[in-house]
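Fill in residues.
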């Protein structure tokens, strides 16, 4: 944890940001779809540097060139990995966030495939992503931005009234999107709870509603959908909880995870769940029968919003503090 804060300081992060990240990690602040096949992808249009992948002894591949990578998504139809990079203050409307495009062999195809710095593109601090049809959706503080999945061109945005810190996203088979808001806001002294904890639903035609709301959600962060349509969420606060979002919007079937400040959440075909913890820098596997095992741990960096390449049996890990993405073999 200390090494991470020092690393942020070296990157020139302001004091309030360091305090905010410290709050997220140890509670020292004020308040503790179906996807249609895409057309042939065009060649990358930006002048991104190609980063050689580094294979490690355990068979994983490490890809550098990120700047606060928050989420990794496998674009199955086009067989590529998309990475959201915050690149600075996670609350700032600074238009310097970007989406990277990585090939499955670890080659960086386009470091800034979608770049807030480009004319006509707005992208401040991108976090969770989801794909529905031929559109990429990206959570960006208080709005969900839409991009053409083939060209990367912007297609507009969906404003989320009342949101303060949109985070994870997941798409249902019918095209409905769910996006979480842990209910945080920035202050001069760091981050604090805004009391806006919520999970929103966005219909294919862009209509927004609250699927759940209230502080009982425990700063909802990672989301996942089960085959029966059940919506799962994990808490970013210190409660270490994973739960089903009940029909009335209240947490149900609550389960406790060994680590807290939970982020990424993945439902596997065997009924087990993968969840990442910022508190312990660990990814856990929760078996359907109640078992808990450690899948991955890195003392130098938390794993943020993890992704999955199910076909290759590979976990996609954004190591936030190290500015790399790890393509990690997932044991059956």
């Amino acid at each position: 944890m200390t090494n991470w804060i020092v690393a942020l300081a070296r990157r020139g992060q302001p004091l309030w940001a360091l305090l905010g990240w410290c709050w997220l990690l140890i509670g020292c602040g004020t308040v503790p779809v179906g996807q249609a096949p895409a057309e042939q992808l065009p060649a990358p249009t930006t002048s991104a540097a190609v980063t050689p992948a580094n294979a490690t002894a355990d068979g994983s591949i490490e890809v550098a060139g990120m700047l606060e990578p928050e989420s990794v998504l496998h674009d199955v139809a086009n067989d590529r990995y998309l990475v959201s990079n915050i690149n600075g203050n996670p609350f700032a409307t600074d238009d310097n966030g970007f989406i990277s495009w990585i090939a499955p062999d670890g080659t960086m195809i386009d470091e800034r495939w979608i770049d807030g710095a480009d004319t006509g593109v707005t992208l401040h601090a991108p976090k969770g992503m989801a794909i529905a049809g031929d559109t990429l959706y990206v959570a960006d503080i208080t709005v969900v931005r839409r991009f053409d999945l083939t060209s990367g061109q912007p297609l507009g945005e969906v404003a989320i009234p009342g949101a303060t810190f949109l985070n994870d996203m997941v798409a249902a088979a019918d095209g409905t999107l769910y996006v979480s808001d842990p209910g945080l806001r920035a202050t001069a002294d760091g981050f604090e709870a805004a009391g806006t904890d919520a999970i929103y639903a966005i219909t294919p035609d862009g209509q927004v509603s609250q699927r759940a709301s209230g502080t009982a959600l425990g700063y909802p962060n990672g989301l996942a959908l089960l085959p029966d349509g059940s919506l799962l969420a994990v808490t970013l606060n210190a409660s270490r909880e994973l739960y089903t979002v009940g029909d009335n919007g209240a947490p149900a079937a609550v389960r406790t995870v060994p680590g807290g400040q939970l982020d990424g959440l993945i439902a596997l075909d065997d009924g087990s769940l993968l969840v990442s913890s910022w508190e312990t820098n660990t990814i856990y596997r929760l078996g359907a029968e109640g078992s808990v095992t450690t899948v991955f741990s890195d003392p130098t960096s938390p794993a943020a919003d993890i992704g999955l390449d199910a076909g290759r049996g590979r976990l996609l890990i954004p190591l936030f503090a190290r500015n790399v993405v790890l393509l990690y073999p997932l044991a059956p």
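The mean pLDDT is 88.
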